[in-house]
Amino acid sequence: MTEPTPVPDAAGGGSRTATVPPEPVLPAPVSKQASNGHRQNGAPRTEATPEPGANTHVNGTPAAVPTAVTRADVRSGDDVEAGIVALWRSYGESRDQSQRDRLVLHYAPLVKYVAGRVGTGLPAHVDVADLIQSGIFGLVDAIEKFEPERGLKFETYAMQRIRGAILDDLRSQDWVPRSVRSRARDVERALERLGAKLQRTPTDRELAAELKIGLAELRELYGQLQLTSVVALDELIAPNKGGSSLAESLPDDAAEDPVASLVDQDSRRQLADAIAQLAERDRVVVTLYYFENLTLAEIGKVLGVTESRVCQLHTRAVLRLRTKLNEQSEA
């Protein structure tokens, strides 16, 4: 038997009577053997029991089964903001270091963001990790000096402190005085203004007039600005995109010039050929005088002639060699 249950009418006017069928009773799982009448693996095969959360059909009607909650603790953005406000209030009262560390961890992404912005215009040898390390000290200082009761936004205040800490660390590592850096920027701006105005590269006199300094003072400034044009040692040693390092392109004053070496070898070969074509006595005089370092008197004793005769032989040999070398150069 079913009891009539009043149901609100669709139009909202009164109610109507509907018959609600009784809730069906699901049969309990019943085990049955395999179709061949034998057990498999020593145990009877049973029908699978529906998993929780699956749709079970009863008489063609799906029965809803509640799904288990996978995450119990889901905090919204408002909860996180409220927790940070409470943490700031607690830290302002107790000044506990553990609470300060929690604030540092929460605002740590600000340091990475500011370090990336500052490191954009720096040379390649400056490591962003060093900038982040300097920015952490700025963040800690900002947390310790921030006053929440003033109603200011901490992120804006902290970003300025982080950027200042990074720039202070960069200035401490710079060997060039700040005054020189400032004057270098003034020279660059003056060159840009004159270049745009004159449509050419300005002369030193024009640049000095633009800077309102003398020509001698400008040249002295050039000498100071040379300190700012340096290259990192890593860039000198490490190969560039072309496959060779910058150090390989620097001139070595102590190295032997290959062109001069080739010219010297060719000159020696021509001189040896010319000496080989001399008379025997002239060749002996040249060999003893230039290769054995004997004096004219010693050569005279070797040849059994006077020193004046050796001088004549030497002069004749030199003239013949000069003539032969000129002929070889013109050929």
UniProtKB/TrEMBL annotation:
Keywords: DNA-binding, Sigma factor, Transcription, Transcription regulation. It holds the Pfam family Sigma70_r3. Gene3D superfamilies: 1.10.1740.10, 1.20.140.160. Residues 130-143, 295-321 form the RNA polymerase sigma-70 domain. PROSITE patterns: SIGMA70_1, SIGMA70_2. Residues 1-68 are annotated as: Disordered. Coiled coil: none annotated. InterPro entries: RNA_pol_sigma-70_dom (IPR014284), RNA_pol_sigma70 (IPR000943), RNA_pol_sigma70_r2 (IPR007627), RNA_pol_sigma70_r3 (IPR007624), RNA_pol_sigma70_r4 (IPR007630), RNA_pol_sigma_FliA_WhiG (IPR012845), RNA_pol_sigma_r2 (IPR013325), RNA_pol_sigma_r3/r4-like (IPR013324). Belongs to the sigma-70 factor family. Sigma factors are initiation factors that promote the attachment of RNA polymerase to specific initiation sites and are then released. This is RNA polymerase sigma factor.
